[in-house]
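Moderator note: this is an archived Q&A kept for reference. The question asked for a predicted structure of one protein chain; the sequence and the answer are reproduced below.
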Amino acid sequence: MGRGVMAESVELKGKRVLVVGLARTGVATALFCAAHGARVTAADSQPAERLTDTLKKLQAAGIACETGSHSEETFLAQDLIVVSPGVPADSAPLLAARAKGITIWSEVELASRFLRGKLIGITGANGKTTTTSLVAHILRSAGLPTILAGNIGTPLIACVDDSRDDTWTVAELSSFQLELTDKFRPDIAAFLNLSPDHLDRHHTMEAYGAAKAKIFANQSAGDFAVVNADDAATLPHVPKGPAVYWFSRKEIVQQGAFLRDDEIVFRRDGQEQSILRVEDIPLVGAHNLENVLAAVAITLLTGARAGAVASAVKTFAGVEHRLEFVAKVGGVPYYNDSKATNVDATQKALESFDGRVIVILGGKDKDSDYRTLRKYLRHRASRALLIGAAAEKIASQIAGSVAMEMVGTLDRAVERAEQLARPGDTILLAPACASFDQFENYEHRGRVFKDLVHKLAEHASAVSQSAARQQGGR
């Protein structure tokens, strides 16, 4: 039976729907609601001149648009408010609407009411994108109809029309998407880990963890929950309703995926299967081993064959902006981990290398504590190059752990890294910060970094070829 039959459906025709936030998710949501007969208003706090093309598209679909400051009257005149991930759930107009009893959902809640087939939801502070991408890669390689969606790029609402009763939809889910869910229920839900992040938005670790744990809230006995047995912060959120499967690189688990003698093993109802050897995994770093263990557990629970799972893991090339090898310049490798937008992710990136890392840190602070990086910088890094709005805070909190320089911008950081680097070094962009002080998003930051590195590589190649020609002409 498809999810469209099982889920509690919602009738949009004739309903007054307000969509708040007009980035990619908000636009897709507004157009979806209008196509289903709703009377849609789309609102964004940005001025109209920054949204010209977006407003044209929405107005052409008969959607009323409100830009600039939010009007509480507009919020209070709705049957349903759908909030984009970038909009704080505790903003004043939303609190007023909630007090009046108006339904407020995230886009993934709305999408789940229409989505057909089976749904896999994956959340966690780190590793979501790699694990979600790997799960989709495995399922496609195993021949299962698969949709990849959510926080990874394509809004879940934009995938509804492509879903069928035999489809597996694999969705990366952020705390922002989950906190405003109501009946949202994945068939398989994974909570990878929990570490400090987004405290500028959630304010406390308790609230952050509770938002992520909503991924389990509506699961029942026929569903599966996949949880990290090695992550103490996640354990208080283990659900009671679904069947729980674990993944661990440190211990043997009763149900789930674990390591034994450098081999990944999956255990279910007392039966064990050897899946693949650690040496066959193409991704670097202990955290990526955890991501693979989670993906193995998730995909085997879909019914995918063990051989197909193993083969797919071996061919997974990784994800852009996640410990992504960019190029070697002068024998020195450059890695792009722009997705390391919090301290824990940067720690994991540093742990992936043996030492002598020149690391680029900084960006927009998220109320983070950078002092926990000190021991990793002391043992793994030779230099920290600090950029962006958080540079002074980072410098004060990591002082004494590693030599550091305030370089301001990413282009200057790459230039300085090349000047400092010698054979045996690694250059790593792992900012531990959001990107919004100098870039549109972490993808934009990562692309700029890669462009700068490729230009360095081209210049180095041109110099080398010129020197070779001069040598040959003698």
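Archived answer notes: The radius of gyration is 24 Å.
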